[in-house]
Amino acid sequence: MAGQILIADDLSLNRTVLRGKLTSACYRTLTANGGVSALKLVHEHRPDLVLLDYHMPDMDGLAVCQALRADRSTRDIPVILFSANADHAHRLNALAAGADDFMAKPLDEAYLLGRIRSLLRNVARRDEWRNHPNTALQAGLAESAEPFAMRPDMALVTGRAEAREGWLSSMAAIWPDARWHDITVPAALGLDDPRKSPDVFVITPDAMDRAGLHVIAELRSRAATRHAEICLILPPAARADGAMALDLGAADILPLPLDRAETRLRLEKIISRKRCADAQRRALENQLGLAAFDPLTGLHNRSHALAEFSRAVAQKNAEFALLLIDLDRFKDINDQHGHNTGDEVLRQVAQRMRQDLRHGDILCRYGGEEFLLAMPDADMSVARLVAERLCARVGDHPYILRDGLAKLRVTASVGISVHDAPGRALTTDILKRLIGASDMALRAAKHAGRNRVVSAQSAVA
């Protein structure tokens, strides 16, 4: 079944009706007859969402919401407050207390269920991060603690040109610190760079009249705009459209006439959630980067480099070369100067070798003091030329250590193998044999006196 929802209302009939509607929608429910029991049940069961009546005799819904937001363990549980009194003060107080939405009784069932589905989607995404076995990915949750460090970029999607200035003036007055600009529906759907996508698309009624609700699904489906949040400005008569919009992926509905304080609170909550999601994605990208690169040298690690090389060769179906590069007598450096010095030499060697790579060459730290250079579209003459340059780059100048005084001379030996059968697909077996041939050539270079290049037989495969 779907998520668990707590219903808190002091009237038994209201609880029964709501419970029936949610059970029919396949939600599990808990019920509380007051604010105090609601708080107790939240801490015991950790529901996915809480529905709170604003007016309860022992502890009203406003106080319950404030208590949930003040507690670190419950502050992220979505809360919807409802009341028979839907005046401005009630709505504003509910949102200011941290409620995700406020609804007037009698509750619109279609809109309520749409809002619940929207909020529970956010809960599911959040829990994926919190339950991930790699706890470093949870850094995004902490990173979003200051959601407005940068000015929010807000795109006002308009339909009629004559209405744009009025909409921009209204929204800029509501949130003057945000960066507001107008955009048409075709221009929004034509964005092809995620870096140019705004934080939030705010879609006006005249844009909806021209484009229809499908614009939400289109924005959600496109790579450049799928991470942007979307909210709609809708008149009260279009409440049914609001429920559909939430199901299509809108983050919230801004009801007309726009109330400055309420609209600002809703937009701030949207931006806060967007900042959290962005931080989580950055954390994931960082983790993926750590998995692909050697942290000491900044080069590709072996497994990632070989995978990249295999893809590059498969695309070009051409000859290629493998160079195995090993630093000479590196153990002596570690033994005489310590492993910190050895690490510093490896970092500087990697920096030097990068300077001689062609576009498309893939250099990785193969292990210890050994490096592998994979060169698509390279025959033996090109590979030998590059190998000779690498040896010179590594050995021609001393390495200055961190104290700025000690200098070390370091040389490298290189073994080369070449695959010159471009019509034959690169298999794991061929790759292993080529690396083995480069290794044999490298050992021959060591036996011949080091600081030199030796090639294996060119036709290895």
UniProtKB/TrEMBL annotation:
A biological-process GO annotation: negative regulation of bacterial-type flagellum-dependent cell motility
GGDEF domain sequence ranges: 318-458
Database matches in PROSITE patterns: GGDEF (PS50887), RESPONSE_REGULATORY (PS50110)
Gene3D superfamilies associated with the record: 3.30.70.270, 3.40.50.2300
SUPFAM superfamilies: CheY-like (SSF52172), Nucleotide cyclase (SSF55073)
4-aspartylphosphate modifications at: D53
This enzyme's EC code(s): 2.7.7.65
Reaction(s) the record says it catalyses: 2 GTP = 3',3'-c-di-GMP + 2 diphosphate
Alphabetical keyword list: Phosphoprotein
Lipid metabolism listed as a keyword: no
SMART domains tied to this protein: GGDEF (SM00267), REC (SM00448)
Superkingdom of origin: Bacteria
NCBIfam families membership: GGDEF
Name of this chain's protein: diguanylate cyclase
